[in-house]
Structure formats: structure tokens, C-alpha cells
Amino acid sequence: MTLSTKFYPLFLLLPLLLLLSACHRDLDPVTFHADGRPPKLSDWHVVEVRDGKLVLNQGVVPYDLNTPLFTDYAHKLRTVWMPKGVSAKYDPTDTFDFPVGTVISKTFYYPRAASGKFADVARTYDSSRDFAGEGLDLANVHLVETRILVRRESGWSAIPYVWKDDQSDALLARTGAVIPLTLVSDNDAREDFNYVVPDESQCASCHAQDWVSRKVHPIGPKARHLNRDYHYATGEENQLAHLMKMGYLTGAPAPAEAPRNANWMDEHASLDARARAYLDINCGHCHNPKGAANTTGLSLDVSVPEDRHLGICKPPVAAGRGTGDHFFDIVPGSPGDSIITYRMNSADPGEMMPELGRSTVHREGVALIKAWIAAQSGGCVAIH
Question: 208-241: per-residue pLDDT in tens?
Fold first, then answer.
């Protein structure tokens, strides 16, 4: 957990701020590569390893999402950097319009398991020991990959990097990678799996919001995902307000007037809001009228009304064996008869959804969507 002035007096924060400043002075300025694929993550100078910590460079702003996309229980450190004098333009529904030169990074990592074995990683939502200032404490975390999204004159480019075993740097992995890991839960239950780093084409397929143009866009930086507080090293602040203050965003309304998705784990939010937020971030970037799954007729964007467009009593178009012999995407009151939960609960590449980005089943996510469907009233009439 990062420090916050809400809980710490200023004299305790000053050493941390001086440490961060010293780290910044030790780093070369962030480098925008207008073309090509630098061979090392450190060539960008966005995040780098210094003294056992993954530190953020000057002007690199961390952020988080109300509900994140699931990736085999990995934790994620997200950052954005822009050249001086430019800003992203606010949009109430779509990805912000980021200027040329923007560099977005997403580092995937796990808390280290108690066993101390390098390939053992903790299956936990607890991130309290992950952070050091606004960076990561390598004594407590295992870095796996970092993905760079860079806005060039020709559009966005997605570039994956895989961290070396010694955790000193990450190397370009254009063809992706397969990394054997073992998830270890609090009760010592173990689950072996292959963490799959997508190749460049797979990155592009998920990030293509318009399947006709196939142009890559960021998924997370939208108002409804970013409208939340973040524990910056200098204190807690709403992310939209912070980006406006930094000069990285223009045109945003007051946070109370901006859209906001629920946190899928927040039990104070309604079941419907939590489930719709989960489907939106995990599925909506493909399942929308312009996305890669537009031919299915199934839209899981948060704005879709709860009718056949959302899959309620909608027969599949071409799911093959992914239907599990079920007739409808969602059967109100009956999650066991719904295709969507069947596919979420599978790790078989020929059946599972999402198709990319995971090798394990997100048990808590499946439980949420099952509870949401079970709470729906009505039923469907099967046509044989």
C-alpha cells in the first residue's frame, strides 16, 4: 500500500519523497521511440529497477481501474507518460484521445509465495506488500511482463517485454512467451499453469476497438474505469482530477459528474453494477457492435440494455462446442444453463472465454456472474 497524507504526517513523507526524487535523478529522461521496437524495456526509461525496486521516472503517473481485466490472478502496475505541453482529451464514453508521444505501460507481477521458490506466486488480492512509494518492492513481488502501448504518428503500437529471471530488465518478446508458474493460495493449495505472454498480433487483436480498421487503442483509460481515488505517494486523490492537475488531461468534468463503473469486489455496490462492470472490462472490448466479436450479436459493453443484446435468451451464432450443449447465452435464474458461465468456467482453449489473456479460471469472477444470473427473473423457451 502506498503512503497517504491521510494516514502519515508530512515529516514521515519527506524521506520517501526525497528517495523518489533521488531515483528520478538517477534515471535518464523518458524516451519516446517514434518507430521501431527497442530491445529492452529500460530503453524507454519509463520504469526501471533501482536498488531492489521498480521505480517510476519523473512524470510517469500510476493509475488503476475500478474493475480490472482478469489475467491469471496477476497484479498490475499501470502508468502513463506524455511529453511536455500536450494532453489527452476527455471523452465520456470512449478511450481518451491521447496525443502522439504518449507511452502507457502495464507491468504484470505477482506477490511472492511464502515457499520462496521463484516459480511459486501467491494467488491473492492483497497488494499491501507490493508497493514501494509508487513503484514495486522486488523483495516481495515477482515481475513477469511489461506491455508498452505507444502513440505514434501512425497510431498506437503494442510492444511486449518479458522480465529476465534476475529481474534486472525486461526483453522484447515479439513472438510472446510461455512461463510455467504455480499459484499458491493462503491455505497452500497449489495450481500449476502456463502464464502466456501474448505476441504482437494477439495484443493488437484485443486492442482493436474497430474490427474494420483494426487500429489499436488502449482499453483501460476511459472515464468510467479511471473515475476513482488512487493512493499516490503524495496523498489520495481522484485520478481524473489528478490527471487534470498534472496537465495530462483536458475537458474532464468534476469526478461526481463523470461516469463511474463499480468495483466488482465492492459488496456495497449492487450485484447488477458489479457484474456489468466485470463483463464490461473483461468482455466488452470485443463484444460490442464494432469489436472483434461483433458477428456474435452479443454485446457486453456496460451501456447495453439488459435484453437479447446482452445475451438474455439469445441463442449463440457460432459457438461450436463452446455452447456446452446449452441453448442460450444467458438463461435468467439459471446460470447452469447459460453459455456465458459455461465458457467462463472453462480453461479449454476451444471453449473458454475470453479466448486470450488467461490460462486459469477466475473462480471469483465466475461466482459473481453466476449470482447475477441467478438473481434474474424469467426464463427462456428452447426451440428444438
Answer: 565 555 677 899 999 999 999 999 988 999 999 9
- Predicted pLDDT at 12: 39
> What was the pLDDT predicted at 20?
45
Q: Distance (Å, rounded) from C-alpha 150 to C-alpha 102? A: 6
pLDDT for 307 equals: 79
Q: What is the pLDDT of residue 248?
A: 98
pLDDT at 295: 72
Those residues of the chain that have pLDDT short of 70 are 1-25, 202-214, 318-321, 382-384
Domain limits of the chain?
10-257, 271-374
